[in-house]
């Protein structure tokens, strides 16, 4: 097995830069998710690791082996990289049975027949496909087909799996099931996996670590907890979490408050300490909807310090929880209240901000200060 390392990797398509100076280390056996919006360069990155694209600049290593470095004229073709790819559109051979589809990569490599049989059956067992080995792809459900595609990747025992939105063609329920199955399988096999998705829930539930990209630039790499709790900038903060984090402009006052014009919140002493250089300046305040409470149910309520009064604008009832949009003068904040909350549209309510959970970003750079 092997880790994957990218060092200062760039990819230009003509004058367009799809990937900018990407340095990223994927550890041996790790499940790393490349996450970002459409067009951010995730697929291009994966294709460069696979050898389907050549970087314009930089080095790519699989294990200790340098597989791409345009400056040195090194470019190892895909077939010699010992990787297996699973795509969104998993083209199975329609005229072949499940058995033959899974066996195909081994046959290509002239693996002896007996060994092929042993490995195909092993993989089929692992993926719950044993009963389906004689079927043709058209006789399978979407999820079963996807498992065959996975089987075909696994059977080769590659050093690295590269997956590009492999679950996006499945319906929502099946996707959730396959997410868990795929994660379990990866742990069982211990094969380094790089998984591309634009779906933050997939990233949060599957990744050992998440690498967040935007406009060709790596924004942050960290565990799901790290990127959620300590986002490096406003992009990561806004991209991860649903509904997204609230952002409000605020000025830091001399007496240690965040002044929003319509209301004020008192910073905790250690927060104010860190923000000394920003006194009198504007910053971006961020708080997640789940960290804003209905005052009726809040533990720590200090009027004038962690509270505001607003009017309930719109409620989205999700059953288990309610997404409540509240206007405070001209400002709007979104809160996530428990399903049993009885607030109604038009109600005037007091809300409490959990000051331990707030984020402060530099207004110019978007970088996290707190
Ligand atoms: P998606 O989730 O939509 O697949 P992505 O993050 O995977 O997006 P990429 O496919 O890596 O994005 O594309 C990054 C950018 O590079 C896009 O703006 C795309 O249009 C551009 N791009 C990709 N391949 C080429 C190419 N062969 N020629 C020119 N531009 C390209």
Structural overview:
Strands 7-8-9-3-10-11 form a 6-stranded mixed sheet, sandwiched between helices. The chain folds into 2 domains: 4-239, Rossmann fold, CATH 3.40.50.300; 246-362, RNA polymerase II/Efflux pump adaptor protein, barrel-sandwich hybrid domain (OB fold (Dihydrolipoamide Acetyltransferase, E2P)). The two termini are 39 Å apart. It has 370 residues and is of the alpha+beta class. The chain is built from 9 helices and 21 strands. 24% of the residues lie in helices and 34% in strands. The relative contact order is 0.11. It has helices spanning 42-50, 98-108, 113-126, 142-154, 172-189, 200-206, 224-229, 234-239, 269-274, and strands at 4-13, 16-26, 31-35, 57-62, 65-69, 74-75, 83-86, 160-164, 192-197, 209-214, 217-222, 246-252, 257-259, 264-266, 282-287, 292-294, 307-317, 321-328, 331-338, 348-353, 359-362. The mean pLDDT is 94. Residues 13, 16, 18, 36, 38-44, 198 line the site of adenosine-5'-triphosphate. It is found in: Cell membrane. Keywords: ATP-binding, Nucleotide-binding, Sugar transport, Transport.
């Amino acid at each position: 097995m092997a880790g994957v390392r990218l060092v200062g990797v760039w990819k230009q398509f003509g004058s367009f830069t799809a990937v900018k100076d990407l340095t990223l280390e994927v550890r041996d056996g790790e499940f790393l998710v490349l996450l970002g919006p459409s067009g951010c360069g995730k697929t291009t990155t994966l294709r460069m690791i696979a050898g389907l694209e050549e970087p314009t600049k930089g080095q790519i290593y699989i294990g200790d082996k340098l597989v791409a470095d345009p400056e040195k004229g090194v470019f190892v073709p895909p077939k010699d990289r010992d990787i297996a790819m699973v795509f969104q559109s998993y083209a199975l051979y329609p005229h072949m049975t499940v058995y033959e589809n899974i066996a195909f990569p081994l046959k290509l490599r002239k693996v002896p027949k007996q060994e092929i049989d042993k490995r195909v059956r092993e993989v089929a067992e692992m993926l719950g496909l044993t009963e389906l080995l004689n079927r043709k792809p058209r006789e399978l459900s979407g999820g079963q087909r996807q498992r065959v595609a996975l089987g075909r990747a696994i059977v080769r025992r590659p050093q690295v799996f590269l997956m590009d939105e492999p679950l996006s063609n499945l319906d929502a329920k099946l996707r959730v099931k396959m997410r868990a199955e795929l994660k379990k399988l990866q742990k069982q096999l211990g094969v380094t996996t790089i998984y591309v998705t634009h779906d933050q829930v997939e990233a949060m539930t599957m990744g050992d670590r998440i690498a967040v990209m935007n406009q060709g630039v790596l924004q942050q790499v960290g565990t799901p907890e790290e990127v959620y709790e300590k986002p490096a900038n406003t992009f990561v903060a806004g991209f991860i979490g649903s509904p997204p984090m609230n952002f409000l402009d605020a000025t830091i006052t001399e007496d240690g408050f965040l002044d929003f014009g319509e209301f004020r919140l008192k910073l905790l002493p250690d927060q104010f300490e860190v923000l000394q250089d920003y006194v009198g300046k504007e910053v971006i305040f961020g708080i997640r909807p789940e960290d804003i409470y209905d005052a009726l149910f809040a533990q720590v309520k200090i009027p004038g310090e962690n509270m505001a009064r607003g009017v309930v604008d719109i409620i989205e009832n999700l059953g288990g929880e309610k997404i409540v949009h509240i206007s405070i003068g001209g400002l709007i904040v979104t809160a996530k209240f428990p399903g049993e909350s009885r607030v109604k549209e038009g109600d005037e309510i007091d809300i409490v901000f959990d000051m331990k959970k707030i984020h402060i970003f530099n207004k110019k750079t978007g970088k996290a200060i707190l």
